[in-house]
């Protein structure tokens, strides 16, 4: 069964090829069959491979399959080879399973669109690239998948290209992640220089022997890789592209900008954990980046009015949690949160998509209101997912995963109280903005009528993801609730366990109470301010301080304005003065000289016979002179 | 005979100068006839009686007469002469004069480089010319004939003026 | 019989030619331009005759006959053109016909 590993990424690529070549000639059903079917079959295969991997694990809990050698130059031989271990297994399951559900959803969501086959072609290409990213056994293949998902993100954000604003958002996403990609490429060069190979396992085994803990080289390599992760995962300082990326269709936002592509950075750091662990400074920076990002985007999410932008900032914030977890060494907790987040965030986006679709593509929450009665299935699944996001205690999966990270931010050897405070405040704010969104959208008097009920293909993914958002949390119960951790145990074959100070169980219990309280208080505050006493908010935003604060947080802490001032304007200025620089002078000069000569010569063409006769005579004299002189 | 050559040469030069400086076209043409006649005399002294006769008959007698016909047809009156004097200012002679002087100067230079040859002056009768014309240069004769036909047809076509097609009783005012 | 130096004959031809050039460049009246053209043709013919007499062969005279023929045809066509120009521009100024300027 494991030998069929290569089929898993190959099928989406095949789907992409078929849709690109024949998509225009197929009917909607045919396109949907190929598009959804390829990912579906990959999903089934992944599940079968997972079952085989878990029940009958291969030696060393990893399996490698080489298809062919890609490049063979001077001893550098990266291959098209796949490496299956617990980490990539988890990611493959999430990608194919959630991907399949989203494909099923979009087969109905995009039904009215003209670019139906183009959409599924891009989506299949994306799934294939993302799978290559997580399954590649060398960094070059990873980088290939990395760039592939970046390309698909650009193509899909700008899917409705007739509107130039969408193209601008797509370009912005591409350029900002490019900055990160460049940093990562330099990191790859550095790693290659020191290890003479880009094979991941070779690097991970050689690194501790070659580099001491805290070596500047290790820090440099880790920080450069972090640059790439920060770009792709929309963390500080490269987070500005994700809110604008909501210009793409909602399934795209669900798949790429919630569940999979933005978690590529998390995968990279987890995969290269040995390099990161060799540099405590880099780990600290990862944690700080995560903590700052989660706070910053949380505050921004409180002020947003577009439902998808709230979810975008929420994604940035939750990935901040994952970075926080990675930074304190809680590898499995971060990956656990990734999986749970994929479920509930995709569900949130899909639910928002149903709302948008049935309300004439309205995105403004304040214009919707009171949808709870009109779309019951959507409401209940959205509520479950919001509970998971806000880490509603005990019954939602988000509680277990987020609580684990916040606990390890305190108790890990690389944690610190400050990081714990950041995580704690972040949880509080998450609850506030999440339920602000729920209350404003679903409660109150309805302002618009839903145009139609969602069909079965829209509802099935919602229900499935809703169920997962509840039960998936039980895969990893904390110590205080019976030490039932099949998930972490599974991951420990690939990632090291988190090293904590020896804290007592009661301390852990109290911290869990704090986090649960934070979540509940946040939900209540959201209820109070946005349902009962909305006037307080209105009054507050009318004051100068309140209005300024709202504007500042609404714009994402004015990062766009800052980058525009710092980078965009000087660049445009340089380009403008370079339009007519020294080298242009040479070429313009040649043209100007030609024009001068043209004017001179056209002056001699006067149309007068005498002038022409004069020139003939002068010519004759010149020739005679030459004949006489020579 | 040498003296006749130089006298005729002087007359030719003087009359040519008069040709290009006259205001009245007919006067200039008459001076041109004089110049051509003196050149015919020069031909005779050089021992080419045939072309001397041809010069007089064809050049002075036909071509110049054609000129005079056309000039008279143009009917340029007194106002034309006045206009000529306006167009012909003194300063205009400087440039062409310099060019002509340079030309002649170079010519003298070339000629004096290889001095000392004399023209024997033997008379070449028309029979010799005729034999040479119709044996060696027969092709040229044919080509010249074609050229003349082209000249006739061209001159007719170019000189033709379209007549108005309405009857003169139906025209307002006079006829052309 | 008589010995005229070759140079004076050719020099005479050259002077006449130069005078024709001056007339061509100075005069604006097209009739005078044509006249200057005739002067130049005549001077060229004179040069041919002088050369033919130098070598004692009739070739010079034959060439002169051809020149004469060509001059006749050219004058005919040229005068017809002058008539057209006069009727079209109502003047004999050659500068009036300068539409092909660039």
Detailed description of the structure:
The complex is a heterotrimer of chains A (630), B (176) and C (102). With 630 residues, chain A is mainly alpha-helical. Chain A is built from 27 helices and 2 strands. The longest helix of chain A is centred in the N-terminal third of the chain and has 32 residues. Chain A starts with 6 loop residues before the first helix and ends with a helix. The relative contact order of chain A is 0.08. With 176 residues, chain B is an all-alpha fold. Helices cover 73% and strands 1% of the residues of chain B. In chain B, helix 1 runs antiparallel to helix 2 and helix 2 runs antiparallel to helix 3. The radius of gyration of chain B is 22 Å and the shape is extended. Chain C starts with a strand and ends in a 13-residue tail after the last helix. Chain C is mainly α and 102 residues long. The radius of gyration of chain C is 17 Å and the shape is elongated. Strand 1 of chain B pairs antiparallel with strand 1 of chain C, so a sheet runs across the interface.
Q: Which structural traits does this protein have?
A:
heterotrimer, A: 630 residues, mainly alpha, two-stranded antiparallel ribbon, 2% strand, globular, C: 102 residues, 3 helices, elongated
């Amino acid at each position: 069964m494991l030998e069929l590993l290569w089929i898993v990424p190959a099928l989406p690529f095949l789907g992409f090829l078929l849709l690109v070549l024949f998509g225009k000639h197929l009917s909607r059903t045919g396109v949907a069959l190929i598009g959804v079917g390829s990912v579906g079959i990959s999903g089934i295969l992944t599940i079968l491979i997972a079952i085989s991997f878990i029940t009958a694990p291969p030696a060393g809990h990893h399996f490698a399959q080489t298809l062919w050698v890609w490049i063979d130059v001077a001893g550098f031989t990266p291959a098209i080879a796949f490496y299956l271990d617990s980490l990539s297994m988890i990611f493959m399951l999430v990608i194919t399973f959630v991907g399949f559900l989203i494909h099923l959803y979009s087969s109905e969501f995009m039904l009215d669109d003209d670019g139906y086959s183009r959409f599924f072609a891009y989506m299949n290409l994306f799934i294939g690239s993302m799978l290559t990213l997580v399954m590649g056994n060398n960094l070059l293949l990873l980088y290939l998948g990395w760039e592939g998902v970046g390309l698909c993100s650009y193509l899909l954000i700008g899917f409705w290209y007739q509107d130039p604003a969408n193209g601008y958002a797509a370009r912005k996403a591409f350029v900002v992640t490019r900055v990160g990609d460049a940093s990562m490429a330099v990191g790859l060069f550095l790693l290659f220089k020191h290890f003479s190979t880009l094979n991941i396992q070779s690097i991970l085994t050689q690194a501790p022997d070659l580099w001491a803990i805290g070596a500047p080289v290790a820090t440099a390599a880790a920080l450069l890789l972090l640059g790439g992760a920060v770009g792709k995962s929309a963390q500080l300082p490269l987070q500005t592209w994700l809110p604008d990326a909501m210009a793409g269709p909602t399934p795209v936002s669900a798949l790429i900008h919630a569940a999979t592509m933005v978690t590529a950075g998390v995968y990279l750091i987890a995969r290269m954990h040995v390099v990161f662990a060799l540099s405590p400074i880099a780990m600290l920076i990862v944690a700080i980046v995560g903590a700052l990002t989660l706070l910053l985007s949380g505050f921004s999410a409180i002020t947003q009015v577009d439902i998808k932008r709230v979810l975008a900032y929420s994604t940035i914030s939750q990935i901040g949690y994952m970075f926080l977890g990675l930074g304190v060494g809680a590898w499995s907790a971060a990956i656990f949160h990734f999986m749970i987040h994929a479920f509930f965030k995709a569900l949130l986006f899909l639910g928002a998509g149903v709302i948008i679709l049935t309300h004439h593509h309205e995105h403004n929450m304040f214009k919707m209101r009171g949808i709870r009665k009109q779309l019951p299935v959507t409401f209940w699944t959205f509520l479950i997912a919001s509970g998971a996001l806000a880490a509603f205690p005990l019954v939602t999966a988000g509680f277990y995963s987020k609580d684990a990270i916040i606990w390890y931010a305190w108790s890990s050897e690389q944690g610190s109280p400050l990081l714990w405070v950041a995580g704690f405040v972040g949880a509080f704010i998450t609850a506030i903005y999440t339920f602000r969104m729920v209350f404003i959208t679903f409660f109150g008097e309805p302002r618009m009528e839903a145009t139609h009920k969602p069909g079965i293909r829209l509802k099935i993914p919602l229900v499935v993801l809703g169920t997962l958002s509840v039960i998936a949390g039980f895969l990893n119960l904390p110590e205080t609730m019976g030490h039932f951790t099949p998930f972490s145990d599974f991951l420990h074959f690939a990632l090291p366990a988190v090293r904590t100070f020896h804290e007592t169980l009661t301390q852990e219990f109290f911290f869990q109470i704090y986090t649960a309280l934070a979540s509940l208080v946040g939900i209540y505050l959201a209820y109070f301010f946005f349902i009962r006493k909305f006037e307080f908010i209105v009054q507050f935003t009318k004051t100068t301080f309140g209005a300024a604060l709202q504007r500042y947080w609404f714009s994402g802490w004015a990062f766009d304005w800052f980058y525009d001032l710092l980078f965009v304007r000087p660049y445009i200025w340089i380009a403008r003065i370079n339009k007519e620089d020294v080298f242009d002078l040479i070429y313009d000069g040649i043209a100007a000289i030609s024009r001068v000569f043209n004017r001179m010569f056209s002056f001699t063409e006067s149309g007068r016979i005498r002038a022409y006769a004069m020139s003939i005579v002068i010519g004759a004299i010149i020739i005679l002179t030459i004949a006489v002189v020579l | 005979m040498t003296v006749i050559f130089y006298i005729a040469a002087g007359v030719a030069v003087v009359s040519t100068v008069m040709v290009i400086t006259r205001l009245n076209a007919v006067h200039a043409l008459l001076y041109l006839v004089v110049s051509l006649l003196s050149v015919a005399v020069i031909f005779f002294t050089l021992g080419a009686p045939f072309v001397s006769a041809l010069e007089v008959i064809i050049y002075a007698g036909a071509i110049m007469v054609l000129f005079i016909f056309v000039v008279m047809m143009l009917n340029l009156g007194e106002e034309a002469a006045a206009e000529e004097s306006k167009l012909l200012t003194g300063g205009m002679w400087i440039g062409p004069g310099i060019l002509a002087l340079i030309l002649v100067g170079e010519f003298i230079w070339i000629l004096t480089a290889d001095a000392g040859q004399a023209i024997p002056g033997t008379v070449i009768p028309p029979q010799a010319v005729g034999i040479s014309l119709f044996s060696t240069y027969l092709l040229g004769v044919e080509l010249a004939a074609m050229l003349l036909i082209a000249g006739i047809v061209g001159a007719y076509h170019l000189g033709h003026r379209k007549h108005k097609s309405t009857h003169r009783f139906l025209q307002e005012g006079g006829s052309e | 019989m008589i010995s005229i130096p070759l140079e004076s004959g050719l020099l005479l031809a050259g002077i006449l030619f130069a005078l024709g050039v001056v007339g061509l460049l100075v005069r604006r009246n097209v009739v005078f331009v044509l006249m200057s053209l005739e002067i130049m043709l005549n001077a060229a013919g004179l040069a041919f005759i002088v050369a033919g007499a130098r070598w004692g062969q009739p070739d010079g005279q034959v060439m002169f006959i051809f020149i004469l023929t060509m001059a006749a045809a050219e004058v005919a066509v040229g005068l017809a053109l002058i008539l057209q120009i006069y009727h079209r521009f109502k003047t004999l100024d050659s500068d009036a016909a300068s539409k092909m300027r660039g």
